[in-house]
Fold these 4 entries.
Entry 1:
Amino acid sequence: MGGRPPGTADERQRAIRDAALTLFAERGYLGTGMRDLAEHVGIRAPSLYNHLGAKQDLLREVVDEAMAELLAAHRAALNSSPDVVEQLRRAMEAHVRYHAVHPREVAIVNGELRHLEEPAHTRVSQLRNGYASSWTELITRGVREGRFVTPSPALAALALLGIGVAIPLWFTEEGPFSESELAYHYGDMALSLLNVVPAAVRAGGQRPDEPAAMLPPSTR
Amino acid sequence: MGGRPPGTADERQRAIRDAALTLFAERGYLGTGMRDLAEHVGIRAPSLYNHLGAKQDLLREVVDEAMAELLAAHRAALNSSPDVVEQLRRAMEAHVRYHAVHPREVAIVNGELRHLEEPAHTRVSQLRNGYASSWTELITRGVREGRFVTPSPALAALALLGIGVAIPLWFTEEGPFSESELAYHYGDMALSLLNVVPAAVRAGGQRPDEPAAMLPPSTR
DNA sequence: CCTACCGATCGGTAGG
DNA sequence: CCTACCGATCGGTAGG
């Protein structure tokens, strides 16, 4: 059975996956050798092939898991409330929280996707496009309901997505903000960017597309 | 003197630089071989070394030029007006415009910087940090003057930077927006995100940190 | 899990 | 500008 440092085959596989996450994020997919990966885990390179079929499998598994978790958090945010403003806030918090908590996954999904072979590349690209479309649809609905004021829901969606995407780029050297501070403040910023019209104002009978009193920076 | 397809040595050097820009952006620094570069230019790989010292030189030159142009556009925006709101708008427009017009340079600066060797890596990293600091200082000044309302100038700065950084990521397949539309709309969004207080409201004697009437989406 | 090793490809040089 | 070629390193396999 298993030796001492190794542990079970399952633990090994998780250790390899974690090493891939760290090294692919730090050095890139092409910049990471199987020998680097093996050394990180404490074995020799050929032994890795007892746990995986090819280097490419590691990239695919890491990217698949990352996309699944991001999309699950997004769906949960959308299901958390019937109110479009609250949905937007929670979706932004989930987006920011994911990017802050999973910098390695984000770096890989945003930077190494081109090294993902077909058919996985096309499949993951469609998931990403679907994510962006969901944001555009959410904002479009908010505009239709008179709660958001923005000239282009698609551009606003890309702006909000970009805010999250950049987090790991600028926070490589452990910044001064916690994950929750980031989520909270960026949630507010998303509402500011969309010029949110408070429900009370709408109910008060003002025309929705008229400039309305601004929310204070924090609504909690 | 020069043959026909080649042209002058200077034209060759520019052609090589342009091929590096395209290929480093598309396939990454490590994913681009000297043979790929040579083929793109129409010569054999060893002949490249009549025009450059090493592959690394190409990366350094591309990154240096990109940073210089971005920073020059940023300084021009800051010098365009004494008004902090106008400075912010123009800085955002310059930021967005650069990222929309130079997707290859942006992809390389944001994705391949880790392959830049010292001392260039440290030097360029400092330029980037200086750029981010300039944004934070601009927003801090706007808050101090009562023109912006935001709980953290640093986080707001990172958000605005992120909006630009993501543009080439999501616009790989030629989107439906022009460079000028992007700059214009994102300029507005930046002002919304910062809860801009119009100069007229300030002059009217309201307390600067009190929630004020919101600007309409476009101020032009 | 290891050692030994393979064919391919890499950046770059020699020499003209 | 070319052909010929070098040493190093790559992902992966053989065989136990």
Entry 2:
Amino acid sequence: MKVIFKDGNTYIEDVENFDVAATLDCGQAFRWEADGNLWHGVAFDRRLKLEKIDNTVILYDTSEQDYNEIWHNYFDLDRNYGEIIDRLKTDERFVEPCNYGGGIRLLNQSPWETLCSFIISQNNNIPRIKGIIDRLCRNFGEKQGDFYTFPTPYALAEKSVEDLAVLRSGFRAKYILDAAKKVSSGEVDLEAIKKLSCDEAREVLMKICGVGPKVADCTLLFGLGFTEAFPKDVWIKRVMEHNFGGNLPECAVPYAGIAQQYLFFYARSHGDEF
DNA sequence: TCCCAGGCTCTCT
DNA sequence: AGAGAGCATGGG
């Protein structure tokens, strides 16, 4: 991999295991849209347009500083996915999922946005999750040029369930507010729990009303860097039943969250029995 | 129309 | 501890 800054763009050349479309559309983040081969979205209060041409990922209008401070880590470019995939493939059942989804990279997202987004995700479908998050940003985020930032927990903590009716998020509104209150008050310190063990951090997150094991594990995995977190949604539960007898094989345990992404992506398009 | 969605809380055993 | 109802809303 080689990173070049030229004409105001960032070019990531010879990049391995980076399928831009799969990474942005596999259900780990909800603020990315495709316009043909070009993807655009917002993360960490910055707008980004990107696409992959041949084996180069181009981040448009991105300074060296933004790349170094935001996008390099956001796209998890320090991780060697090839090694992880090789290890997973020592178990036959991971071969097809890895071949199919091996271009998915974990997005290291903002902890608060991740927590809030996956609270909204519960018992919901991806198109509607995106719609609710879009309305959340438009109504309570900050307008910056042609986009809206993700609202802070402080901005949301002072709102009421009635205020949030514009989101049409149903029973989840009260959960969003409880999360906003606990995070903004420091009762749940999203930075501090990065230093805890995965189990301890999960326990803290679950103090929020509306955060159970699944939402907590998504937050741990996509927002707090715990690759051993293993979110179990309806798809993964079926995959685990049908193919793994309920337990992950040893080779997947340290990277359970990454393995989970491959299994989720594969199962959604191929069905859960393989 | 019906079923379901990247679940969780509450209640009842 | 485990099972089941109810939850808001709208996409397919």
Entry 3:
Amino acid sequence: MAYNIRSRETDRARSAVPALPLPRPAYYDFWLECRSKVVASIVHKDEDVIVAGSGHASLYINHDGWLFRYRILHNGRRQIVDFILPGEMFGLQACLFDRSLYSVVALTDASLSAIPFGVIDEVFDRNRKVSRDLFWSAVCEAAILGEHLIDTGRRSAYERIGHFMLELFVRLQRTDRTDGLSFEMPLTQELIGDSLGLTAVHVNRTLRALREKKMIALNDRRVSLLNFDALCRVCDFQKSYLGEQAFCRSSLASSKRFERQL
Amino acid sequence: MAYNIRSRETDRARSAVPALPLPRPAYYDFWLECRSKVVASIVHKDEDVIVAGSGHASLYINHDGWLFRYRILHNGRRQIVDFILPGEMFGLQACLFDRSLYSVVALTDASLSAIPFGVIDEVFDRNRKVSRDLFWSAVCEAAILGEHLIDTGRRSAYERIGHFMLELFVRLQRTDRTDGLSFEMPLTQELIGDSLGLTAVHVNRTLRALREKKMIALNDRRVSLLNFDALCRVCDFQKSYLGEQAFCRSSLASSKRFERQL
DNA sequence: CGAAAGGTTGAGTGCCATCAACGGCGGTGG
DNA sequence: CCACCGCCGTTGATGGCACTCAACCTTTCG
């Protein structure tokens, strides 16, 4: 928990590759554990990190940028599976399969720590706490994807976009990247659409509806949630969901929650 | 790999709680590892195993039935997140969160092994191979959910249902529950719809279209794939996808694939 | 300054939801 | 045994949400 205090310092050191980069306790431990093997790197906007169909043998911790994971179908449509926000890890699946199922590309400039895949194995041999952390973080990842599935499966465009904004807010808040009830969002309407299974045009209309209903405001690249509670209600956003998930993604159930169950 | 041979025997012993129940190598090891703590149980059709919103402290291995994980939204709609086929594990997420995000209910009679949650911790302390297996299986689970996300996000009803059938086939084939290119499927059209974000009525029409195009045949509860390759092409079913995933879910990347990367 | 990218708005279309009715089938109780 | 009911599958009619195509504007950037 104490690590959370670091997030502000990390923020300030954003331009360089940070020396103590991890706002997340579990990843921080993980990062410490394999520090000697870590390769720091910086990627620029629109730069590919992982290309679908090719092999890959590193996983990454994203310190301060936005990236996203996507796939192109044979009819040319693109589905964005997940946005990778500051402080999140990615690349595990690319390691698991011979050839990655998805591509990962940088949406903004970002500084990454690349961790050779084999290090995971060493960690499992050496540090039980960290291996448990990794395990639970993977379980949590699956839970988040399950929630996105519900999004695209059973919600209207209006609910999807509202839910999407709420989720971004909660996830960003964890690393102190929100300001009151607003946050910066470097996404185009096309990206939002490709993430939620909508077209850019329809995202545009729906955003207008959300503005007209005084649910959100948009200035430049900044989103403000004008009526948090109402939006939660309309979009079926369970506070328990990301409230809990946020907890998970931060402590990764390795601490109190986990011990309590024993 | 040798464990696969067991699947036929397991099949025959289906009526009782099996003594050596696991067709999956990784879960088999896991099951062996915590055998003394396992509680065998049988659930009947329509019986709840996990209820959304309540706490839970066991995970389960499903030996021979069909179950599914779902959530009800406030507008009354239901989204099925995943079907749990014979030989698959579930309940991890319910353990991770204070209160489960999803409900799990039996679709047919099924025999389960309940494993107390705390055992996982012991396993992580004791057996590195099994803990790695568990980790990779969780990563793989996330990959499968990602694929479902693409399903509901960017595919037409026709493609979704075709893709769904192909995936079921491949997953069932792994535990030898297919017969040539056909398999038994105890699902109603409503369940299929709730899984793919469609209405039962539209599932009906789409199934008819698939029949008329000679892609599939339906008799009783049995699905036959009449033109496997064409269906793969139309539905953008990547053989690499579940080909790989099937591999994962079976060996859980603990063996050759994993070692090779080191 | 021109080109490219992103945002905005309108008109028309189509896929899929909704509502509704009906038939088959199995279970159940009189 | 049969009437009744509920579940499931099937089909038709209708409507709406979101897609498609297209035009235009603003901003950014080479």
Entry 4:
Amino acid sequence: MLLDVLRKRLEAFGALPQEDVAFLNALSLQSRLVKAGADIIREGTNPEDVHLVISGLACRYKTLQNGKRAIVAYLLPGDFCDLHVFILQAMDHSISALAECIVVKLPRATILSMLERPAVARLLLMATLVDEATLREWVTNIGQRPASERIAHLFCELYLRMRVIDAVKDHTFELPITQSELADTVGLSIVHVNKSLRKLRAANAVTFKGGRLVITDIELLKKLGGFKSNYLHLDDVLPSLVLDSGATTRPNG
Amino acid sequence: MLLDVLRKRLEAFGALPQEDVAFLNALSLQSRLVKAGADIIREGTNPEDVHLVISGLACRYKTLQNGKRAIVAYLLPGDFCDLHVFILQAMDHSISALAECIVVKLPRATILSMLERPAVARLLLMATLVDEATLREWVTNIGQRPASERIAHLFCELYLRMRVIDAVKDHTFELPITQSELADTVGLSIVHVNKSLRKLRAANAVTFKGGRLVITDIELLKKLGGFKSNYLHLDDVLPSLVLDSGATTRPNG
DNA sequence: CGTACTATTGATAGATATCAACGCTGGTGG
DNA sequence: CCACCAGCGTTGATATCTATCAATAGTACG
């Protein structure tokens, strides 16, 4: 089912009643294929439907008057693009596909029927609040950490988020972005990102190459990035995710 | 009434029915005085009540393992500290009073009764979404703009937010923070903040001294900071706030 | 086989941080 | 009342970090 990925994402925060799962499965969906590099939603518009990423990778971004671009969030499978169209008038940022994406369009009526289900509504709200917490962490990361640590922290976060949706295999996951996009994410120049990545690789922490991230030593990476996972609020539900899964043995992990 | 400031904040996004205003006025409130520098809520706790700032100035902040501090939001009168305690288990950041604050404690039951009123619930959700949009803007600001522009942008934002709660008199408002706190907000060193402030003053854009901000030329300040107010989503409701109020004439403003 | 885009590297320039010193202010205790 | 102290603001000198520039190479793609 297309919405499996949404269920997986929501259940990371808490179990979902069987009837709600059935409800999700019964929805008829209209999906759309978006090519890498294409915009899914553009700033200034007010989308008619709500968009949900099913596969691929997308990002929220802002373009500055000086021509620079800031990537302010990554959207993984199961993430909503624009759940706020109900409340706010116009998009204050754009959303673009970093890799080819499958996106489903959920009519507003569908969303409203989802919100009528308390368990679903609660988990949706929770996901929104975690998005906000993640932004606070990004402000902290970009504002206070030097280049290599900044990148290490981002990689830790993405690693955990990818694990939630079962996208990590053998300490490796697809991260189909260029160094240029990474630079726009962490607020560094391309060249400096390149050199910082080399440092992280030399430290035997992580290798990023060809749109693929190989975590060599997650504990080291966490230490380098000063990473604490509490802001993702997975602790209570999925303690196994919070603890490391690396080569080091952790029987209760 | 203590909650006047909340009403003012909410009505910045849309009118509130008379009966909802009456409802707010009828609430019995327990207020608390917090000294400057004291924590209102600390990371790791799960507050019993929801806190709302009535007067003064507070901030959300995070402390890093390397001892640095990041200020990730300012809380003005009418802002909630921890509306998310219903959903998330523990605070992932702390909240501290920058100046002496009056804070009211709203029992969870009170919040629930507020959420039962559609107009109030809608405006609360809207305020939450604007908080998130503001964080995206901060990520952009800190990540992409050089020092002076970064500070100019922050000042523009605070100027608009202060106007919403009628805290701007004569192009001037109280901003009771130190340069050190400003540095932790924009991700710069104290010394560099000091020098950047001097530049902004020399440009005749803004003067920050003694916890007070005097806007000399708001249009210039906006230009320096590359400021676009759309992310605050005041456009539809309070267009007069969005356009300039400065010496330059703008007949259709 | 060009033509982009991406990655990489070294050299240099520019921005920001750190260090150090000083003055100012408000409070505090003698 | 005065001496002292702590926090804040200010300034200049220096160190470090990061950006920019330039060149090269690899890769995908038409």
